Amino acid sequence: MPSNRREFIKKSAAATAVIGMSSPFSIMKGGILGANEKLVCGVIGVNGMGFSDLRAFLNQPNTECAALCDVDSNVLNKRIKDVEKIQGKAPKGYKDFRHLLEHQGLDVIIIGTPDHWHTIPFVYAAQEGYNIYCEKPLANTIEECNIMERAVQKYGNVVQIGQWQRSDKHWQDAIKYVHSGQLGKIRTVRAWSYQGWMKSVPVVADAPVPEGVDYDFWLGPATKRPINKNRFHFTFRWFWDYAGGMMTDWGVHIVDYALFGMNQYAPKSVMSMGGKFAYPDDACETPDTQQA
Fold this sequence. Notes:
Elements: H1 5-17, E1 39-44, H2 49-58, E2 63-69, H3 73-87, E3 92-94, H4 97-100, E4 108-111, H5 119-127, E5 131-134, H6 142-155, E6 159-161, H7 169-179, H8 215-219, H9 246-261, E7 273-275, E8 289-291
Parallel strand pairs: 1-2, 1-4, 2-3, 4-5, 5-6
Antiparallel strand pairs: 7-8
Helix pairs in contact: 1-5, 5-6
C-alpha cells in the first residue's frame, strides 16, 4: 500500500486510467437480497452529507451500517457512537477508505466525501463490485465523470447519485405534469436558487493541523496547501481546489430538473457569468452570485 501522498495519487491515477482492463474484483458483492436479508453499507466521509445519507439509509427496513471511514478521527469517533445509538451496534471505524473496502459483508458504499475526493474511492468501490450511492456533484470535471461512468459500465454496479429530488413524490408529480403536455409547448425554462443561509466567510489565518486529522490524506489529489479552517469541512464548497461553489452544490439539483423536465440528457452549450458581489471581501473563491 502506498506510504505517502504522492505515491498514492500516482497509483490512484493509474487505477482510474485502466478501467478497460480486467480486474479480479469485478464480481458483484450485492446481488438480489431475500425478504429477510439485510442490506449492509459502509460510508466514506461521514461529517455532513455522508452522515445525512446514512441516516436516510438506516431509516429503511432491513438495513445496517457495518463500517465508517473518515480522515478526521474526531468526526469518525463521534459518528461511530451516533450510529450505535441508531442501530444498537457500533460500526467498525477506518481512516483509509481502502481498508473499509476490504471489510467483509458490505453490499453498498455511500460516498459523502468533499467533491474532489469522489472519483478515486468511487472507482475503487466499482472495481470491488460494490453498489454505490455517491453524493452530488458526481465529480469536479467532465473527464472524472467519464471515468466513473466507464467504471460502472465495465463492472455493472448499481449506482445512484445524490440528486434527491428524483426520489421525492412532489417533484415527480411536477415532472409528470410537465411531461403530460398540459402546459403546451415549452420554449423557455428558468430555475433559480436563493440561499438565505449562505453567510459571509471571514478571512482567517492558516493554523496547525487539528489533532486526529490526516490532512495530507484529506487533500488527496488537490493542490498541497496549509490547512485553513475555511477550506476544511463544510466550507470546502467555496474553494476551487475542492468544489465548484453554489453552482455545483445546489445548482446541480435544479439544473438537473430543468433538463429532466425537457427530456434532455445534457445541454448543447453552456454560458455562465457571475462573481463575488454579495461578499466581495470574504474568504470564499467561488461566486456568490452566478447565472448560467
